[in-house]
Amino acid sequence: MSSRFPWEDIPEQVEEVLYISTKGYEELKERIKNKTNIPNDKILSKFSVQDNKIIHNDKSQRKYLHPKELYETIYNIHYEQHRDTTATYKYLNDHYYAPGSYPVVKLIVERCEVCQRTNYIQRKAENLHPIIPSEPFKVWGLDVAGPISPITEPEGNKYIIMAVDYFTKWPVALPLQISEYQK
């Protein structure tokens, strides 16, 4: 029978422990404290217990976040700098050991009201889509300028409609007394 805990019955090629429940965290801590030996156990050798906390034995000695601390820690990291999901997750992994926490980071960043209001999400610029006319006088650009001051006498024109042919760049301008969009 296979165990539901990530440190039991794991093939040797697996390097990372999946994130565990509070009960699983406490059991892992006890196994590390008691140095319970399991044949071919490479996972337990990666951890130690200091001040009643699990520490991942890598170069930076990162703290393995307790499941109860996970959400609050990610929340605090994000709300210090309001960075995107990838940057928040990278900061979390640089300072803590929290495998499998990316979905929680993504959820917190997506629900951040400040980020939603100020649109901190980095967007890639899209290439321009030029309009390339195939022949003269087939594609036109139109615009209405006005109201202009002073109004012309005696016609009373106060708007100008402008058109430019995209192929030849031929400009055309006509005076108007009133604008259609004011009616």
TrEMBL record:
SUPFAM superfamilies for this protein: Ribonuclease H-like
Gene Ontology MF terms in the entry: nucleic acid binding
GO biological process: DNA integration
PROSITE patterns membership: INTEGRASE
Integrase catalytic domain segment(s): 132-183
Record-linked InterPro entries: Gypsy_RT_Integrase-like (IPR052160), Integrase_cat-core (IPR001584), Integrase_H2C2 (IPR041588), RNaseH-like_sf (IPR012337), RNaseH_sf (IPR036397)
GO cellular component: nucleus
Protein name as annotated: Integrase catalytic domain-containing protein
Protein species of origin: Zancudomyces culisetae (Gut fungus)
